[in-house]
Amino acid sequence: MLVLLHLFALFLLVSLGFYVFVANPRNRAHQTFAAFISFLALWTIKDLIFWNFQIENASADWWASASFIIALLMQCALVVFAWVFPENLRTPRRKAAVLFAPCLVLIPAAVLGLLWRAVGFDDNKFIIDLAPLAYGFVGYVYFVFGYGTFVLYKKYRQYRGTQKGQQIGAILWAVAITGVLKTLANIALPFFGIYALLPYSTIFVLPGVLIYAYAISNFKLFSLQTALDQFRLFPIAYKIALSIASVAIVSFIIFQIPIVWWAFRDGMTFEAWRRYLVFSVISALVPNLLLVLLIVRTISRPLQRLTVAAVQVTNGEYGTEVDLRRSNDEIGLLAESFNEMSRKMADDIEQLRQLNEQLIRTEKLAAMGTLSAGVAHEVNNPLASISSLIQMMQSKNDLNSETQERLKLISTQIGRITQVTRDMMDFARVRPAAKSLVDLNNVIETSLRLASFDKSFQRLHLKKDYAENLPSVFADHDQLQQVFLNLFLNARDAMPVGGELYVKTSQSNKEIQALIADSGNGIEEKNLKQIFDPFFTTKPTGKGTGLGLAVCYGIVTAHGGKIEVAANAKGGTKFLVNLPINEKSDET
Q1: Which residue from 101, 195, 267, 461 has the least number of CB within 10 angstroms?
Q2: Distance from first CA to last CA of the chain, Å, rounded?
Q3: CB within 8 A of 107, min separation 6: which ones?
Q4: Do the beta carbons of residue 476 and residue 435 sit within 8 Å?
Q5: pTM beyond 0.70
Q6: Which H/E stretch holds residue 515?
Q7: What is the CA radius of gyration of the chain?
Q8: Where are the domains of the chain?
């Protein structure tokens, strides 16, 4: 019966210490509690061996030495806990060095057996004859115990009325209960020669330990919510511990019990021991290999995949994700966080790339605007003089037909140059936008009506899909009309023999979108990024100046919007114009 009680106490202590420690392994109070439980587990193992398997007339010095040393270490752990709880403070090293200095003398004295004259069993009766130094040792143990209790009491008065105060109060009750029971079983009764309760001293500690653990875990120990929380976040330490325990128990039942029965069925002979040792080693390989497989599957493989993904991200493959099965442990959370970080990093880098392209394009627009204004001004003055001279020469009646034809050709080329310089002036001119609330559908419809006067545009098959009840846009009507008219005329030039022009408006979040898609020749992918640059054009020489889309880009971005170009899935090109719905448009 006693051995079962000791085994139960040992199992409960180990489970409790592990549970509390893993719940918050970085917390110093939890670390100190785990140390206290470890010392108490050693005390239980000591008693388990001594009171159940001690050979009669064998030396019991080891048990007495272990009892004194472990009792002292438990009180030291109590003091450290009192220092760090509940603030999670650091242990005061100088104070600890002074308080624990006597341990340097007392522990070696216990090891050397200087605390007793005799200890063991005499006629099946346990006796112990203590030396005077033992009383000093016990007095120091109670001094450390009292000091730790005093520190906890001071903190209880400091935090009285709060949850921390309730925790410390419960711990004080645990300390008091444990102190009284241990003193009764280990000191008071043995002082009068009564050792009946000494084998049960470990059992007497369990109520205090349970209160202790209950208080340190914020009164959530073994509660339903705590169990649900632990199920939601199932730490790797729990998984490994359960795996090891399960494999150990199963292998013991499946292998060890049959091997022991088979090896020793004819008695404990040399041959029986040889059979037991050989087959025990062989049977141990199976659970060990199973444990290695479980650990590799639980830790090594996921970490390897995380490492590979991290290296890929380091090499610039932003957006790389770890393909792991969802799990509710630290590695599962790490994988989810890594994937989220990688996705966000890819999105941020893409946004930075777009902003950088917009900045470069804006700088180009500003530089080319200044250059265009200067060039247009310098060219227009002499061009006006040449045009005047040509008109004077044309007014003469004595010119032959060949000369008139040449003058007419010169006038035509002057007109072309004048149109180019006018486009350059329009591109360079900074005119404040006359913004008002406008209907985007109306702007597009007006632009289509203007474009329809062109015979080439009339050959196009127009398909319109306007969203109803679009919010008004706070913008310059004429500038937006210039944007869409330019896009429509570009679509006309891309479809010289006719085609389909698709115009669609829609609303997305706080933006209004206009889609213009044609089924024309399309734009090569390598040219898509340059299409909004000044003087870049895909049209044949003499067909365009390369300023139209640059002007469109400047107008749209000045309105706080975006204009994007992409290849049309049905062939051709599509432009997407996004304009923000600002507060002024929302008010209407």
Answers
A1: 267
A2: 86
A3: 69, 72
A4: yes
A5: no
A6: strand 511-518
A7: 45
A8: 2-229, 233-317, 323-430, 431-586
Tokens of 197: 């309760």
**What is the model's pLDDT at position 425?**
61
DSSP string computed for 465-494 = EPPTTPPPEEEEHHHHHHHHHHHHHHHHHH
H or E element at residue 121: strand 116-122
Region 323-430: CATH code: 1.10.287
Instruction: Give the whole-angstrom CA distance, residue 179 versus residue 464.
Output: 88
Amino acid identity, position 278: V
Amino acid identity of residue 336, one-letter, is E
Planar angle of CA 220, 222, 227, nearest 5 degrees: 90
Closest to 281 measured CA to CA, from 267, 306, 263, 294:
263
Contact between 461 and 502 (Cβ < 8 Å): no
**How far apart, in whole angstroms, are the C-alpha atoms of residue 503 and residue 497?**
19
Contacts of 69 (CB under 8 A, 6+ apart): 107, 110, 111
Half-sphere exposure of 378 (CA within 13 A, CB side): 6
Helix pair angle (301-314, 330-394), 10° resolution: 20
Q: Degrees (nearest 5) of the Cα angle 443, 446, 448?
A: 110
Contact of 244 with 291, CB cutoff 8 Å = yes
Q: Give the type of residue at 198.
A: L
10-residue stretch averages of pLDDT, the chain, 588 residues long: 85 81 80 89 89 78 92 93 90 93 94 90 82 93 94 92 88 90 86 84 84 74 48 60 74 82 84 85 77 72 81 84 72 81 85 70 59 64 76 77 80 74 58 77 87 82 88 86 85 84 87 88 74 65 63 83 83 88 54
DSSP assignment of 198-251 equals GGGHHHHHHHHHHHHHHHHTTT-TT-HHHHHHHHHS--HHHHHHHHHHHHHHHH
**259-264-270 Cα angle (round to 5):** 110
Helix, strand, coil tally for the chain in percent (to 5): 65, 10, 25
Residue 481 CA to residue 499 CA, distance in Å, equals 23
Number of H helices and number of E strands within the chain? 21, 9
Cβ–Cβ under 8 Å, residues 12 and 222 = no
Alpha carbon separation from 521 to 117, 351, 524, 532, 538 (Å, rounded): 107, 30, 9, 18, 11
Give the SS3 label for residue 322.
Answer: coil
What topology does CATH give the domain 2-229?
Rhopdopsin 7-helix transmembrane proteins (1.20.1070)
**Cβ atoms of residues 97 and 76 within 8 Å:** no
Q: If one looks up domain 431-586 in CATH, what number appears?
A: 3.30.565.10
